[in-house]
Design brief:
Rossmann fold; 8-stranded mixed sheet
């Protein structure tokens, strides 16, 4: 199985990642056999996007065929789902020898698939470094997997087999240690999910600054889109230290103070994140040599005055 690509697969899960991966596998010639989901409706919907697989609700599953089995469910559900299915279909009467079983979680290791490894399967974690936000786009366009990094973890033979699958769908596999998965996933979250959160914060600040009646108050994408794109482009092209611009990189203590004072009046709930990011930006600017130690300390000394004591304000959730 290490060198031979799977000819068939089944998938457990019918969400966005499961849908995208199943569709690209099918279009690359790996035939889908079974789609399993918590609800019959979800399984049937994904099966309808593929070519002829059966759709089965989780509580009715009796068999899980295929050279490749993909678990693509939420992290919270993965362990329980894998254990439940192993009890249902991985008994002595079913031969799992050399079959490849993978999951798409960014944090769980291949160990959660140990019930399948115990009956002869090759098990690996298979984490695509991509956001899957638009289900409709994913069902129509598989180009997003071309060159896509996929983090793979497991024993040597399982990694080899899973890497072959990644290359077959046009992706770029890389290996990662089991002990590093949580930290690496945190980096991925900061690079994607928290970037979205920062955009939401910036949009809120811009709307507060312009006011409810301003004709451009709802044109955040038009006003800030190019600024964000260029900053990201510079970061990837030049590296973070050389790409950093703005008041902290210039050592402008007054501007930092002005930001915080106005945020305290109009958007105090955003100050903790702003102050934390400012702290790291000061460190980055200092490392880059754009500000000296005296300026860095002056900025850092100013920040604690704007950090509220105690736990986060849960009333805003």
């Amino acid at each position: 199985m290490d060198t031979r690509l799977p000819e068939t697969f089944s998938v457990v899960g019918a969400g966005r990642v499961a849908s995208a991966l199943s569709i690209v596998l099918a279009r690359k010639g790996i035939r889908p056999l079974v789609v399993v989901s918590r609800t019959r409706e979800a399984a049937e919907y994904l099966a309808s996007q593929l070519d002829g697989p059966s759709s089965v609700p989780l509580n009715e599953l009796t068999d899980l065929p295929g050279d490749l089995v993909v678990f693509s469910v939420s992290d919270d559900a993965l362990v329980q789902t894998a254990e439940m299915i192993a009890e249902q279909v991985a008994g002595p009467s079913n031969d799992w020898t050399e079959r490849l079983v993978i999951h798409t979680s960014g944090t769980w290791t291949s160990d959660v698939l140990s019930p399948f490894e115990a009956v002869g399967a090759l098990t690996a974690s298979f984490h695509p470094l991509q956001t899957f936000a638009d289900r409709e786009t994913l069902t129509k366009d598989i180009a997003g997997f071309t060159g896509l990094p996929v983090g793979i973890e497991g024993n040597e033979r399982a990694v080899s087999a899973a890497s072959a699958v990644a290359r077959a769908i046009g992706s770029a596999p890389f290996t990662i240690r089991a002990s590093a998965k949580g930290l690496f996933h945190a980096a991925a979250v900061m690079a994607s999910n928290y970037l979205v959160t920062l955009q939401a914060m910036a949009q809120e600040l811009s709307e507060v600054a312009l006011g409810e009646d301003h004709p451009d108050g709802e044109r955040y994408s038009d006003l800030f889109g190019e600024l964000t794109k260029q900053a990201l482009s510079n970061s990837f092209k030049l590296g973070s230290r050389d790409a950093l611009t703005g008041p902290i990189a210039r050592g402008d203590v007054r501007v930092l103070r002005e930001h915080l004072q106005q945020m305290k009046e109009k958007a105090p709930h955003l100050i903790p994140v702003y102050a934390a990011l400012a702290t790291e930006t000061i460190r980055l600017a200092s490392d880059a040599g754009t500000i000296n130690q005296e300026i860095a300390e002056a900025m850092l000394d100013h920040l604690p005055d704007y950090l509220p004591p105690g736990p986060p304000d849960k009333d805003r959730i």
